[in-house]
Specification:
The protein is of the alpha+beta class and 484 residues long. It has 14 helices and 18 strands. The strands form four sheets. Strands 3-8-9-10-11-12-13-15 form an eight-stranded antiparallel sheet, covered by helices on one side. A six-stranded antiparallel sheet has the order 14-1-2-16-17-18.
């Protein structure tokens, strides 16, 4: 921290801003993401770290959905009543499903295309929607149809322009083995996307982070052709007075941009990874160079963070409070349902090279263990029903959905985290040591395991997928047994 007194004054200023933004419900500040270009990572992979934050009693199911052929007349019925044509073939994908939630599911498909999102409120108060627009289902459609991150952006852009987006605003983080993109969508039919530079890092809380836009540069930008003209017509942007068009300022809801919950998490995430140090009142860049090549462990540490070692940590080194109960919204918080770090490598077949390192219910409490894109099924106990019934019942689940059930792994993780929260200061250090040992062991084993697969079974992908499924199940069941 460069200036303690500056931070204190800003702290009180943030509380004032919070009081002025009572209309911004706490649910507007769900989720946190980091995207790392392949030249900025230690192992040459594209990395995507994400905490999924959702308030209230929730549950997470893990599914593996196979590829599927579809009839020529088949359509997709959208949640709000609209329809779109189905494609003749959809790809397989890992699906982290949260019943009843409209914008919380995570995906990794067979090509490694990985998708999650962060709520970002927009200024739009007169959205153009066709048949109620599209919201839920957009990321699933991307996962089913896209072979690259950029293709996923284009698919989403076309659907938004066709149907209109039914939520205030959102940033979709989309990564693949070759590149990552930030896709910011506004309520209605406007959107913009920017490519993450290969040698840089992007941090995203719950506000738009895309700044200057150059739609003529189609290598690095995509978006609505009338993005600037529309904002000028609405009176949000005056080229003569405002200078350069800054998307986040023009389209972003001011209360969200200025909210302390967003600023604190942005400040912390950037300073943990950047080559530079930023003050809380800084104009944070869209992307930045890291202080070193970033590893899986580096991103796991950020997803577990509660501002430890800074003046924004209000727990006195966990002696006074549980870090999930302080006034400062932390990166890992009371509503974090899961965290993951997607490791996406282009030098391996996607079914081996794309791995979702997943920490169930609170990353600060549970270890990140690997789920390979190539697995063919999910181990028993990590889901209810099946992926077909989950899709059909997503918004009308069983009455006993949230009944504490020891046969479902999620509840073991939930109870373990809640138990540790009761005496966090005394329990967490041993938990952290155990998790660090396990993660180091698994990361160290990864290379030898994958080399063995390619050496012995390079001509037999089905055998490799069977072994990946077996190994993934072992990790999952070992962690489940440990938390019991």
């Amino acid at each position: 921290m460069k200036n303690f007194f500056l931070l204190i004054s800003l702290f009180f200023a943030f509380h004032f801003q919070f009081a002025q933004a009572q209309d911004l419900h706490e649910n507007s500040f769900n989720c946190f993401s980091i995207l790392v270009g392949k030249e900025a990572s230690k192992d040459g992979s594209v990395l995507f770290a994400h905490n999924e934050d959702d308030y209230g009693t929730r549950i997470v199911n893990w599914y593996k959905v196979p590829e599927k052929n579809h009839g020529l007349e088949e359509t997709i019925l959208l949640k709000n009543g609209g329809e779109i044509d189905q494609v003749t073939k959809t790809f397989s994908y890992l699906w982290l499903e949260m019943p009843e939630m409209e914008f919380s599911d995570g995906f990794m498909n067979e090509f490694g295309v990985t998708i999650a999102s962060d709520a970002c409120r927009s200024k739009e108060d007169n959205p153009a929607l066709v048949d109620g627009g599209i919201g839920y289902g957009l990321r699933r459609i991307m996962a089913e149809r896209a072979q690259t991150a950029k293709e996923a952006v284009k698919i989403a852009g076309r659907l938004v322009e066709e149907k209109g987006y039914s939520s205030s605003g959102r940033t979709y983080c989309i990564a693949g083995p070759d590149e990552a993109w930030v896709l910011s969508i506004v309520n209605g039919k406007h959107w913009v996307a920017q490519r993450v530079p290969d040698d840089e890092v992007v941090v995203i809380p719950n506000y738009y982070t895309i700044r200057e836009v150059d739609l003529s540069d189609t290598v690095n930008f995509l978006g609505s052709s009338d993005l600037i003209q529309y904002s000028t017509d609405r009176g949000w942007y005056n080229p003569a007075q405002d200078g350069n068009f800054i998307f986040r300022n023009v389209y972003g809801e001011p209360g969200s941009i200025n909210h302390k919950d967003n600023i604190l998490r942005m400040w912390r995430g950037v300073n943990m990874l950047s080559n530079d140090e930023f003050d809380l009142d800084a104009q944070f860049p869209f992307s930045f160079h890291p202080q070193k090549k970033i590893s899986l462990s580096d991103l796991m540490q950020v997803l577990r963070d509660h501002y430890e070692g800074t003046d924004m940590d209000l727990t006195n080194n966990y002696l006074e409070k549980n870090p999930h109960e302080t006034e400062n919204r932390t990166i890992c918080c009371s509503s974090t349902q899961y965290g993951f770090v997607a490791q996406l490598r282009s030098n391996l077949p996607a079914y081996i090279g794309s791995v979702m390192w997943l920490a169930p219910y609170r990353p600060c409490v549970h270890p990140f263990f690997p789920w390979y894109a190539g697995i063919t099924e999910i181990p028993d106990g990590f889901y209810r029903g099946n992926f077909t019934s989950a899709g059909e019942e997503h918004f009308s689940p069983a009455v006993n959905l949230y009944e504490n059930n020891d046969s479902l792994a999620y509840w073991s993780f939930y109870k373990n985290a809640e138990m540790i929260d009761q005496d966090y200061g005394n329990l967490i250090k041993n938990v952290q040591k155990k998790n660090a040992r396990l993660e180091s062991k698994w990361i160290e084993e990864q290379s030898a395991f994958e080399t063995m697969l390619l050496t012995k079974y390079s001509n037999n992908p089905d055998t490799i997928k069977e072994l990946l499924t077996r190994q993934t199940a072992k990790y999952a069941n070992d962690v489940w047994k440990m938390v019991k």
